[in-house]
């Protein structure tokens, strides 16, 4: 792997592999195991004891699956771009979409070797980019599309600074003037109260959360996006697992948990044209 943040992709991969093996999987990503190697197993050993965060990780994937599939049912030819794709396999599992996966060259190479594009059930391209040295705008330019585009950014925003988040959204608005973003956003208070132990392991790997706030959605609002939906990851994880009592408690009485880590769907309408 080229950098510490890329290594966290092995953690989320492990969550989905473990989930797929369960009698009642939350996500059911049966392709995830194709990417397992010695490095992935070593990383997973450090995280496998975090049962609740791991379940939430699988649930967040399932929430995005559902939201995107609803859109693809309406428009099977829609463009879907996965930024920081990691070991995402949605192009193999969901019905419809013209898919573009964007990530670090080492991850793309591993994906190409373990799960070739030719096996995808939908049109799929992979785009390797060194985020530290290459321009995302320049690399995405050939894929410019004025039609409604769906952009998945999962497990990424907590590692970006405020400036990097703003820059990323500016690139998306330029390349895909009419698009939808699906992403997970974590509040600072949630991380401090419920994720310190997990974050300790992540930071030991050299990956760090940046500029967390208690209003992470504000960067989208300031950029002109509107909120289409917002779903509690923790609450949905309990619902998918059939934990009715826990789901009720989270829904009714534990607002910091319910509100602290959510999947957001943001709509970006085309910028208005200048008169004349």
TrEMBL record:
Q: Which GO terms describe its biological process?
A: methylation
Molecular function terms, GO-annotated: methyltransferase activity
Q: Transferase: is it a keyword of this entry?
A: yes
Please give the InterPro entries that the UniProt record associates with this protein. Answer: Ppm1/Ppm2/Tcmp (IPR007213), SAM-dependent_MTases_sf (IPR029063)
The UniProt keyword set, sorted, is: Methyltransferase, Transferase
Give the source's domain of life in one word.
Answer: Bacteria
Keyword match Transferase: yes
Q: What is this protein called?
A: Class I SAM-dependent methyltransferase
């Amino acid at each position: 792997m080229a950098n510490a943040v890329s290594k966290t992709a092995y953690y989320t991969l492990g969550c989905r592999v473990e989930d797929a093996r369960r009698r009642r999987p939350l996500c059911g990503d049966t392709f995830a195991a194709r990417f397992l190697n010695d490095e992935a197993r070593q990383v997973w050993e450090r995280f496998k004891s975090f049962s609740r965060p791991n379940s939430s990780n699988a649930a967040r994937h399932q929430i995005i699956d559902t939201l995107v599939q609803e859109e693809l049912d309406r428009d099977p030819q829609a463009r879907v771009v996965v930024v920081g794709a990691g070991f995402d396999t949605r192009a193999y599992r969901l019905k419809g979409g013209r898919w573009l996966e964007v990530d670090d060259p080492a991850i793309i190479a591993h994906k190409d070797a373990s799960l070739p594009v030719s096996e995808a059930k939908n049109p799929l391209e992979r785009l390797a980019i060194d985020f530290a040295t290459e321009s995302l705008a320049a690399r995405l330019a050939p894929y410019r599309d004025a039609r409604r585009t769906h952009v998945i950014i999962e497990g990424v925003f907590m590692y970006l600074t405020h400036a990097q988040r703003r820059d990323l959204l500016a690139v998306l608005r330029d390349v895909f003037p009419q698009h939808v973003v699906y992403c997970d956003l974590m509040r600072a208070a949630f991380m401090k109260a419920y994720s310190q132990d997990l974050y300790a392991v992540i930071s030991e790997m050299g990956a760090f959360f940046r500029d967390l706030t208690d209003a992470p959605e504000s960067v989208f609002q300031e950029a002109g996006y509107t909120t289409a939906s917002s779903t509690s990851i923790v609450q949905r994880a309990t619902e998918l697992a059939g934990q009715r009592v826990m789901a009720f408690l989270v829904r009714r009485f534990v607002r910091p948990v319910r509100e602290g880590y959510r999947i957001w769907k943001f709509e970006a309408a085309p910028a208005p044209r200048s008169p004349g």
